[in-house]
Known about the structure:
Layout: E1 44-49, E2 58-59, H1 60-71, E3 75-80, H2 86-97, E4 103-107, H3 114-118, H4 121-135, E5 141-150, E6 153-156, E7 162-166, E8 170-174, H5 180-184, E9 188-194, H6 199-217, H7 221-231, H8 234-241, E10 247-250, H9 258-262, H10 279-284, H11 287-316, H12 319-322, H13 325-331, H14 333-337, H15 341-354, H16 359-396, H17 399-406, H18 408-420, H19 422-430, H20 436-445, H21 450-476
Parallel strand pairs: 3-4, 4-5
Antiparallel strand pairs: 1-2, 1-9, 3-7, 5-6, 5-10, 7-8, 8-9
Amino acid sequence: xxxERLHTRRCSGRPGGKRLRAxxxxxxxxxxxxxxxxxxxxxxxxxxxxxxxxxxxVREVEALFAxxxxxxxxxxxxxxxxLTAIGLGEALAAALAKPHGPEVILVVPQTCSGWLEEGTxxxxxxxxxxxxxxxxxxxxxxxxxxxVPGSDGPVFVNVHAKVMMADDALLRIGSxxxxxRSMGMDTECDLALESxxxxxxxxxxxxxxxxxxxxxxxxxxxxxxxAVRAAGSVGQAIERLRGGPRTLVPLADVDPGxxxxxxxxxxxxxxxxxxxxxxxxxETLPPxxxxxxxxxxxxxxxxxxxxxxxxxxWNATGLHDAIVPSTLAASLAPLRESAAGPLVALAGFVVAxxxxxxxxxxxxxxxxxxxxxxxxxxxxxGSLLAAGAAYAIGRLLWRDTVRRLTGPALGRVxxxxxxxxxxxxxxxxxxxxxxxxxxxxxxxxLQVRFLPYLAGTALGLLPGILGxxxxxxxxxx
Length: 477
C-alpha cells in the first residue's frame, strides 16, 4: 500500500467560501500535559468529497480502505460505528477466503441507534456479517460488541470510533465509517500513517491496538500483549480474556425477517452518491405542473420531518402504550382470518376514500391488519379501486360543477395532467397537490385518459405503500 499516492491539496476554503488566513505568529497547538505517542513522522490525509459544482468526486477514503484490507497479512483490526459498505465487505470477504490471510477483528455496536436505523442500516450490516461468516472458511473472523457494567446489569457500548490497523504497518483514524455514505456521499477526512518497516512506528501501532483491546477487555495493555504472545493469535487472546465485567461479546446473528428480502442493496440512509438534483425531474414535468409539484415536494419534506418527530415522540413517551398496533391488529383478527376479509378491505377502501378518509391511513391500516406480504398488494389494489371510483364520479359530474367545487387552480393542474399522461399523474400522486380523491374526481371530470391515469396512480403510490408497509411492520414488532 502506498500512502504517497494520496496527493495533497492546498485548502481552498470551501466550507466558508473564503480562503483561510495563515496564523500571524507560530504557536504550539499540542497540549503540554499530553504525551505524544509519535513525533517526527509523515502522515497522509485520505478524503471523501462528492462531486459538486463542476468538481470531480474524491474517493481517497475508499481507496485506502481497500488497499489496507488487501495489504494486511496477519491481523486487521477494525473498530467502527457501521459495517455496511458493499465494496469493502467484498474486500473483507476476499481476505477471509485466502488460505493464509489475516485475522479480521471487528468491534462494532451490538445494535444500531433507534428502530429506524436498526430497520435499515442494521439489516444491511446483518447481510454483510452473514457474507463474511460464509467466507470465513479458515476461522479467522472475530466480530464483537463491547459491553460494560451498568447500574442494572451489563450495558452495550455504542461504538462511535473509526479506527483501522493492519499488522504493524498502517494506522488510520478519522471520520469515515465503513458505510456506503462515507465512500462517496459524505465529506470525510482520515489521517493515516505507515511504518515502512520502522520499528518505532510499528511498535506504536501495535501498542495502540493492545491498548484499545485491553480497555475493551478490562485488562492492562501489557497483559493483553502477553496473551497474544501466548496464544499466537490476537483473536484467540481475546477469546481467552473476555468474560469479565468489561468485555467483548460475540456479535449475535440477527434474522431481520422479511426486511432482508424487501430492502434493496442500498437504502436512503446509506446511499453511495448524492441523490440526483430535482432539476431534471422538473424539466420532465409540463410547465403548468412544475411549480405546484416542486412546492408541494418542499411541503412533503416538512411533513416527513413531522412524521419523524412523531415517531421519536412515540418511542420516547408513553404514547405507544396508549395505542398499541399489535393490540389493534388482534382486535381485528376475525376479519383477517375470514375468507371474505380481503374483499371487505377492498370495499372499505372505496367507501372510505369516497368520504375523503386519507388513503395513507387506509394503506397503513390494511398492512397492519393483513401483514406486509398480503397487505401491501391489497393496499395497492384498494387504492386503484378507490382511484377508479373517484374518476367515475368525476366523469358523471358536469365539468362546471367540479370547477366550482375545486376552484380554477386545481382545474389548471388537471388540464396539464390530461396532456402529461402517466408521468404527470405519477408525479402528482408521489407529491400530491390535492387530496387523493379530489384529484381522481377532477381527472375524471376533465376526461384525463383512464389507463394513463390508473398507471400513473400505481407508479406514484408504490413508494409510499412500501414505506408504510415497513413502518407498520416495525410498529407491530
